[in-house]
Amino acid sequence: MKTIGVFDSGVGGLSVLRALLAEMPDAHYVYLADGAHAPYGERSAQQVAERAQRITARLREDHGVDALVVACNTATALAIESLRQQHPDWPIVGVEPALKPAAAISRTGHIGVLATRGTVESERFARLRARVESESGRTLHFNCQACDGLADAIERGDEPATRFLCARYLDAVHATANTQDPMDTLVLGCTHYPFAADILQSLAGPSVHLIETGAPVARRTRAVLGLPGATSPETGTPQITLLSTGDPAPLAHAAARWLGTQVGAGHMNV
Fold first, then answer.
1. Closest CA relative to residue 14, chosen from 223, 250, 199, 202
2. Which annotated residues bind substrate (predicted)?
3. Is 144 among the catalytic positions?
4. Is 219 a residue whose pLDDT tops 70?
5. What is the domain count for the chain?
6. Are residues 138 and 229 in the same domain?
7. Using one digit for the tens of pLDDT, what is the confidence trace for 19-67?
8. Annotated binding site, which residues?
9. Are 67 and 15 found together in one domain?
10. Which of 212, 230, 249 is the last residue of a domain?
11. Residue 6 · residue 20 · CB < 8 Å
12. Which of the residue ranges 97-106, 133-142, 176-185, 232-241 would you say has the lowest mean pLDDT?
């Protein structure tokens, strides 16, 4: 049984863990929520990089994980290159906003992107956007919106605040559009945002296709580990270890709600 480490600033990475469980049900997962330092999206690049480095070292040393999934768009954007330099012998998989899949399915070429400020303002995101625009062979309009506070509202389970912020940032996407073509695709560029997908879909309307990154990340992780995929819903029995640098109770509650699993969560000092 392979052991896969997964970390995020909080509970948002559970959306990636959900996809990993579907793709590789017979693995052991060690999920760490850096709750004591969440959210990452509005922290400095240096702070995020330092947290990612410390967490990565602890997961590798204490839990012997065979691969690491950085289940946070902000941490991927600001830290994954340094993590790979420090651990060149070890597979590290990151997440990034699904701009390429969005470009492939969008009919109008008008694509909204909701992400944290740390992601939207990162050099890695700018390179990704430029590459996708260059390779698409057509005109694309990526309308990117930094969503301050949204990940935190989802993290706290504050539905009124989540709904208010979703409406606010979708309105901002429409208000700043630089094309008359209707937006038909919306990229959820933070792993927290899939847990607000129902709200976002109701606000955006049925003609807008929402895209998240969990499934592609899970397939990539399976590929780098050389593991077969699930052959049926009954395949394998996963083992899940939940850890938090903050209060572990919200993590356990979120896992029960979004993963349908009753797993106790422990505290870890990092």
1. 250
2. 8-9, 40-41, 73-74, 191-192
3. no
4. yes
5. 2
6. no
7. 999 999 989 999 999 999 988 987 899 999 999 999 999 999 999 999 9
8. 8-9, 40-41, 73-74, 191-192
9. yes
10. 212
11. yes
12. 232-241
Which residues span the domain enclosing 117? 99-212
Does the pLDDT at position 229 exceed 80?
A: no
What's the CATH number where 38 sits? 3.40.50.1860
* Bond from prior residue into 39 cis (ω within 30 degrees of 0): yes
| Residue 166 among the catalytic residues | no
Instruction: Please identify which of the residues 144, 147, 166, 190 carries the catalytic annotation.
Output: 190
C-alpha span between 243 and 249 (Å, rounded): 10
Nearest to 189 by CA among 12, 53, 14, 5: 12
Residues 127 and 184 in one domain: yes
Q: What's the pTM value of the predicted model, to 2 decimals?
A: 0.89
Considering only CA atoms, give the Rg of the chain: 18
226 and 185 together in one domain: no
Q: List pLDDT tens digits, range 198-214.
A: 999 999 999 999 999 99
Q: Which residues are documented as binding site for substrate?
A: 8-9, 40-41, 73-74, 191-192
12 in Cβ contact with 40 (< 8 Å): no
